[in-house]
Design brief:
Number of domains of chain A: 2
CATH class of the largest domain in chain B: Alpha Beta
Radius of gyration of chain A: 26 Å
Distance between the termini of chain B: 39 Å
Number of strands of chain A: 2
Oligomer: heterodimer
CATH architecture of the largest domain in chain B: 3-Layer(aba) Sandwich
Strand order of the largest sheet of chain B: 6-7-8-3-9-10
CATH superfamily of the largest domain in chain B: P-loop containing nucleotide triphosphate hydrolases
CATH class of the largest domain in chain A: Mainly Alpha
Number of helices of chain A: 18
Structural class of chain A: mainly alpha
Largest sheet of chain B: 6 strands, mixed
Number of strands of chain B: 20
CATH architecture of the largest domain in chain A: Orthogonal Bundle
Strand content of chain B: 15-25%
Strand order of the largest sheet of chain A: 1-2
Shape of chain B: globular
Helix content of chain B: 25-40%
Structural class of chain B: alpha/beta
Shape of chain A: globular
CATH topology of the largest domain in chain A: ABC transporter involved in vitamin B12 uptake, BtuC
Radius of gyration of chain B: 24 Å
Distance between the termini of chain A: 10 Å
Chain lengths: 471, 517
């Protein structure tokens, strides 16, 4: 094959070469991160500096550096910088926690949609299963089964000790995976659009169950949701020593609630790391290849000996389990769950993260989650807040000489949020259809060839003259 | 004991009896071929053997185990591997990954091993990758291991599909038209390869194939089926002279060629053929075009011309850029440089539908008919840009006059037609707009010998009687050179030779590279 690359170097490759010369990337990454940290440290309320700091994750990911250094600088950022600036402005910690939760969900959905090519529109149901699992067992709900919703007698004890949370985080994985298999068994013979519709239905069924299982037995407490839900206890001794460490850095006394935020952030980080390891190992194995093969061509895959149903169930179970554990964490973090959190729009939201980030691509999906969360939580909300302020001020739109305050309430800027989000999505799909960080297949041939030099080659050595590359 | 034994296998689709009480015995170490007209039920039989279809009646026994009722993945575990007629690679996976998927039944890593990256897992992966590299070397795929399967030229994809099936270390290999779309030289190499697989690796081969040179050259036994039934069985020389087989499948020409060894399995190229009509003005001219597929520089400064009333053929190896040239002319691939002129009008930048309007008909490789639409609807879509219904009717009458068979199949769905009928439909659809020039991409691919003759006769008729210029891409270079006036030889995106078809056919380099000796 006489394939030659087109000769001209693109602008981006020139920039890449420039940035990655010698020690330059190490310097750049360190300075970028340090600058971001200082900016946020001294302007804890300035959103732009926070984004700058967040973007350093992308910079570290993109620059070509030694793997060990990347790991070290990321660890410093995640374990030292984020906790400190996060406690100075607890909202940041909350944003990062949400990003982690949704990144795990997106990674789970990515196994189903990206690897195996099974469109699941009801993914958030597994998240709900995890959340309600801990919500039920980690609250007083067990003693309120006979009560009418909203009439909990005071002094009802909790059913389980708070530290059972850790067991239930694990159970969340198991129960959600089983739910995935249970859903998968009857529906996985369906393909494409049909599967999408059934999963959509399943997602709604779970939500409606959560909404209505307050009678005859009050299991979910209906639309009001379950609260309070226990959080695991933080050992007093550890807290005190942490306070000694944190108080001077933060510049004031750190409250127990703030430590809880930190705790959940670290827990989410742990889960995310676990999820990334699982997904990467899965992808680069017989199982991952089989899933991708199913996505590409079911008939060919089954003819290679891949059991379709079992592999698809595996994908469903793995995807669901990530949602399950994150559901348990969500319930404990919020101390409150209600059916509202598990609507169809949430499923679509997670799917958006996967597609926007780059379907099938692990770093892409994480970036997708971050971008969607930040857009929704901060950029668009900030924008509409700014516009609302304009409406209340005396400001006038120049040129057309139109006073903001005369704008009809029908055109309330708060209503633009979703529209802007939609426009961003459309533009993304037009200009980057494969996502922010498109999935790439592993390049393996060269590394393998250098390795197998020493091994005896059976058929090819006798048939080297097969030489099909003739003509 | 026979490796595979099928007894009375029957498969029905609704009222249609696709395979009817078929018996077949495959002895270990044999090469057994199944031949028969398009639509005879050969592929259906393969699909039944491999579990994609469940037989309605009959027994299939492999090494003492019944395969009836097992799923395809269970049957694969009996060391039965296959390739597909229409190439079914995992398009967005690399060449190496495709081969690794083929090893699925040979890898024993389970979920705990995968997640813990155990020693056992690492060792197995390392061996699997080494074995994949070995297979790539064996199949001449070294160097493209990290390319996506979809980016490979057609012939290389065929080789990859065979490599993938070999990855399972099969005892029995089912090959469904493995040389379709290969030129005679490549078919010849494939034939040597199949023999090697049997002789050196001890793989038993069951082969569906239309290339009689391959079938007659390597088969130990041949089974001929027609309308789902076995009509003959025996050694190659018995089949060649079987009158029923000649009538139903081979056609008198191919049969004569097969028995006459001196003629290189084909009729000699007619030297007395009338020369190209010189009077014809230049109809289509391509000047120095460059085309890319992604990063791949597929055409490098191709220039060629087709005069009115001419048949011009492009020959060359797989991946040389023949199909890309046609696709660039019809606007499906954009030329980065150069000009394409149709009767002096520059059509380089026109969108594909305007190029069709300008008078270029394109019959794509693999036919590209709409399988769920009826024959009538397929033709209707072809006539989409004509708003004049009576005119459409007249054009339909015209194509029915050329292909009377299509008239009988008017309300049949395109997908249910046999390969030959589909090809006729594709050509008919290309003709319905009354093109000035027809681009034909591999019209004889996957067709029974008797149909190949028929298709070429139709091409000649279109050209002679209706004066339609034809630009023909064809792996069957013998036939193409026999019918064409002029020829261009392409190699790696460049024209390396051009001239009178008869002279090209006599060129010793062309003979050895593309005509199989």
């Amino acid at each position: 094959m006489a394939a030659i690359k087109s000769g001209k170097a693109s602008a981006s490759s020139i920039v890449n070469n420039f940035l990655n010369q010698g020690k330059r990337p190490y310097f750049l990454a360190s300075v970028y991160l340090a600058l971001g940290t200082l900016l946020v440290y001294f302007n804890p309320l300035n959103m732009a500096s926070f984004f700058f700091l967040l973007s350093s994750a992308f910079v570290i990911y993109k620059l070509q550096m030694h793997g060990g250094f990347k790991l070290a600088i990321t660890a410093v950022a995640l374990l030292i910088i984020v906790p400190i600036i996060g406690i100075r402005n607890i909202f940041y910690l909350e944003v990062i926690f949400q990003i982690s939760v949704f990144a795990a969900l997106a990674l789970g959905l990515n196994v189903v949609v990206g690897f195996a090519g099974l469109l699941d529109l009801g993914y958030v149901a597994f998240y709900a299963v995890g959340a309600y699992l801990w919500a039920f067992f980690g609250s007083q709900q067990m003693f309120l089964l006979a009560e009418i919703p909203g009439t909990a007698p005071s002094g009802t004890p909790f059913f389980l000790p708070a530290d059972m949370f850790y067991l239930f985080a694990f159970l969340g994985i198991v129960v959600a995976a089983l739910t995935g298999i249970l859903l998968g068994l009857p529906v996985l013979r369906l393909r494409g659009d049909y599967l999408a519709v059934v999963t959509l239905g399943f997602g709604e069924v779970i939500r409606v169950l959560a909404n209505n299982l307050d009678k005859p037995l009050n299991i979910t407490n209906g639309p009001q949701g379950i609260t309070p839900i226990q959080r695991p206890t933080l050992p007093e001794g550890l807290l005190n020593s942490l306070r000694v460490l944190m108080d001077p850095l933060v510049g004031r006394d750190v409250s127990q609630g703030e430590f809880y935020n930190l705790f959940f952030y670290l827990l989410a980080l742990l889960v995310i790391i676990f999820v990334i390891i699982v997904v990467r190992r899965l992808d680069d194995s017989k199982i991952g290849r089989a899933l991708t093969a199913i996505r590409e061509d079911e008939t060919a895959a089954v003819s290679m000996g891949i059991p379709l149903t079992r592999m698809k169930l595996t994908a469903f179970a793995v995807g669901a389990s990530f949602a399950g554990i994150m559901g348990v964490m969500f319930a404990a973090n919020r101390t409150f769950v209600s059916p509202e959190s598990f609507s169809f729009m949430q499923s679509i939201g997670v799917l958006t993260m996967v597609i926007l980030g780059g379907i099938g691509s692990i770093p892409g999906v994480i970036l997708g989650a971050a971008v969607v969360i930040i857009l929704n939580l901060q950029v668009l909300q900030g924008l509409s807040l700014y516009l609302s302020q304009l409406r209340q001020s005396e400001a006038v739109i120049p040129i057309i000489d139109f006073a903001w305050k005369n704008l009809s309430t029908q055109l309330d800027p708060a209503k633009y949020q979703r529209m802007l989000f939609g426009i961003i999505l459309i533009l993304m799909m037009i200009y980057r259809p494969a996502g922010l960080i498109p999935a790439a297949r592993r390049k393996r041939e060269l590394s393998t060839r250098s390795k197998d030099k020493k091994k005896p080659i059976t058929p090819s050595s006798t048939a080297a003259e097969a030489d099909h590359g003739a003509a | 004991m026979a490796l595979l034994e099928a007894r009375g296998v029957t498969k029905r689709f609704g009222g249609l009896l696709a395979v009817n009480k078929l018996d077949l015995t495959v002895e270990a170490g044999a090469i057994v071929s199944i031949i028969g007209p398009n639509g005879a039920g050969k592929t259906t039989f393969f699909n039944t053997l491999t579990g994609l279809y469940r037989p309605d009646e009959g027994h299939i026994v492999c090494q003492g185990h019944s395969l009836v009722g097992l799923r395809p993945d269970q049957i694969a575990k009996f060391s039965i591997a296959r390739t597909f007629q229409n190439i079914r690679l995992f398009a967005n996976m690399t060449v190496m990954e495709n081969i690794l998927v083929g090893m699925h039944t040979r890898l024993f890593q389970d979920m705990p091993n995968v997640l813990l990256r155990s020693r056992k897992f690492k060792l197995e992966e390392e061996q699997a990758h080494a074995r994949a590299a070995e297979l790539m070397a064996f199949m001449g795929l070294t160097g493209v291991g990290d390319e996506l399967a979809s980016s490979l030229p057609y012939g290389v994809q065929r080789r990859l599909e065979i490599a993938r099936s070999l990855a399972a270390d099969p005892k029995l290999l089912l090959l469904d038209e493995p040389t379709a779309g290969m030129n005679p030289q490549e078919s010849c190499e494939a034939m040597i390869l199949f023999q090697k697989l049997r002789d050196q690796l001890g793989i038993t081969i069951l082969l569906i194939e239309h290339d009689m040179k391959v079938v007659m050259g390597i088969s130990d036994r041949i089974t001929v089926i027609d309308y789902g039934e076995k009509i003959a069985e025996g050694a190659p020389h018995e089949i060649q002279s079987n009158t029923r087989v000649i009538e139903a499948y081979l056609g008198s020409g191919a049969a004569a060629a097969l028995t006459n060894k001196e003629s290189e399995a084909r009729r000699p190229i007619q030297l007395e053929k009338s020369p190209a009509p010189d009077a014809g003005a230049t109809l289509l001219s391509i000047e120095n075009i460059d085309s890319y597929y992604g990063h791949i520089h597929a055409l490098k400064g191709i220039s060629l011309e087709v005069k009115a009333g001419e048949i011009v053929t492009l020959i060359g190896a797989n991946g040389a850029g023949k199909s890309t040239t046609l696709r660039t002319i019809s606007g499906l691939v954009r030329a980065r440089q150069g000009k394409i002129l149709l009767r002096g009008q520059n059509i380089t930048k026109l969108p594909p539908h305007d190029i069709v309007k300008a008078g270029v008909g394109h019959v794509p490789e693999g036919r590209g008919i709409f399988p769920r639409l009826t024959v009538r609807e397929n033709l209707g879509v072809g006539a989409f840009i004509i708003n004049d219904q009576p005119l459409v009717q007249r054009r339909m009458e015209y194509v029915f006059h050329l292909f009377p068979l299509l008239k009988e199949r008017l309300d049949q769905k395109g997908g249910t037609l046999s390969g030959g009928e589909q090809q006729m439909l594709a050509i008919a659809r290309g003709l319905i707009l009354n093109p000035k020039i027809l681009l034909l991409d591999e019209p004889s691919m996957g067709l029974a010998p008797v149909l190949v003759d028929l298709i070429f006769q139709i091409i000649e008729k279109l050209n002679k009687e209706d004066g339609i210029a034809i630009l023909l891409v064809e792996q069957n270079a013998h036939m193409a050179l026999q019918y064409a006036h002029r020829a261009y030889v392409l190699s790696t995106g460049q024209i390396v030779l051009q001239g009178d078809a008869r002279e090209i056919a006599q060129n010793p380099q062309v003979k050895s590279a593309y005509l199989g000796g």
